[in-house]
Amino acid sequence: DIQMTQSPSSLSASVGDSVTITCRASQGITNYLAWFQQKPGKAPKSLIYAASRLHSGVPSKFSGSGSGTEFTLTISSLQPEDFATYYCQQYNSYPYTFGQGTKLEIK
Amino acid sequence: QVQLVESGGGVVQPGRSLRLSCAVSGSGFSTYGMHWVRQTPGKGLEWVGVISYDGTNKYYVESVKGRFTMSRDNSKNTLYLEMNSLRVDDTAVYYCAQASGYGFFTEFFQHWGQGTLVTVSS
Questions:
Q1: Of the candidates A91, A95, A98, which has its C-beta nearest B108's C-beta?
Q2: Is B28 exposed, middle or buried (0-12, 13-18, 19+ CB in 10 A)?
Q3: Among A29, B10, B39, B91, which residue's CB has the most CB atoms within a 10 Å radius?
């Protein structure tokens, strides 16, 4: 199975800041990488697929990059509604696997 | 607008069975693969399995093989997860998700349901 490792596990930032979350795959997954946002008690929300493509309706403040084994999610100009937990997920091969999550908190 | 609504969760004793449903509204159910994903506080998000658009192809995570079975009824726009021989570590919120294609390889999740809680406890 492909292991997905996110860093950091938690992150504190202020409104207006930009942050970057890293996701590493244990083997190459080309660009079959997705990012999700999850708020407490809610289902995950799809943000990005194919490493860098935004789902419909997702604001451009979210951006993704990377290929192979290293990927990043950048969120610019943080607003209160952006504080949540973010997950990466590979869909290169079964079983699909997720990172452990990065909790983004308000400083 | 596609909506996915899971149901069927609840409290069940170890070794017993439970069937989850995922009703999908919006067009095109029969042309998309469907996934189940579960989430526990301890293990995070775990992909459970996928079923192709026509139900002929299925893949499961190793931990549920032989115990869980996915099926679908395209006439009812509904996905199912039959869970047998339930264990305490199957306790989780179960989400259904619609694939971006027919349910074969390298397809991402387009839409998610709101989840249904399954608690396995004596």
A1: A91
A2: exposed
A3: A29
Q: Is B102 on the interface with A (CB under 8 A)?
A: no
pLDDT, tens only, A30-43 = 999 999 999 999 99
Which amino acid makes up residue B45? L
Q: Are B67 and B120 in contact (CB under 8 A)?
A: no
- Determine whether the interchain pair A46/B113 forms a contact, defined as Cβ–Cβ distance below 8 Å: no
CA A38/CA B41 separation, integer angstroms: 13
pLDDT in tens, A59-99: 999 999 999 999 999 999 999 999 999 999 999 999 999 99
Whole-Å CA distances, B15 to A13, B36, B83: 45, 21, 10
